[in-house]
């Protein structure tokens, strides 16, 4: 852990086409919320994320690098997009790495 601090991923915007969150709420409502769970292998490698307004319910990372690595995860079941670039489903969201 860096200086005893914990880090969170906070959504600050949406990029391109995104899928509605699993809660069924409007996808723009995730802006300002924290990543609660993420499964890059869900939906045949298209991924699924759940967000929360409560930072205590969010995933807590021990370093900013760990948070960044989560955001850039490539699913083993679909590692490459149709355009040949790495598939990183969570990067459909613009995020900031926030301190808890």
The amount of beta strand, in percent, is 25-35%
- N-to-C terminal Cα separation, in Å? 12 Å
Number of strands: 4
Number of helices: 2
SSE succession = EEHEHE
**Percent in helix:** 10-25%
Tell me the count of domains. Answer: 1
Give a short account of the largest sheet: 2 strands, antiparallel
Concise account of the structure shown:
The chain has helices at 42-45, 64-71, and strands at residues 7-14, 34-39, 48-52, 93-99.
Description:
This protein is α+β, with helices and mostly antiparallel strands and 100 residues long. The chain contains two helices and four strands. The chain has a two-stranded antiparallel sheet with strand order 1-4. The two termini are 12 Å apart. About 6% of the residues have low confidence.
What does the secondary structure layout of this molecule look like, with pairings?
Layout: E1 7-14, E2 34-39, H1 42-45, E3 48-52, H2 64-71, E4 93-99
Antiparallel strand pairs: 1-4, 2-3
């Amino acid at each position: 852990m860096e200086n005893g601090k914990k880090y969170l991923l906070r959504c600050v915007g949406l990029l391109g086409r995104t899928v509605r969150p699993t809660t069924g709420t409007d996808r723009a409502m995730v802006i300002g919320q924290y990543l609660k769970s993420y499964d890059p292998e869900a939906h045949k490698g298209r991924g699924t994320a759940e967000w929360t307004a409560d930072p205590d319910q969010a995933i807590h990372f021990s370093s900013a690098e760990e948070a960044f690595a989560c955001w850039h995860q490539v699913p083993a079941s679909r590692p490459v997009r149709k355009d040949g670039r790495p598939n990183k489903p969570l990067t459909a969201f613009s995020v900031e790495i926030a301190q808890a």
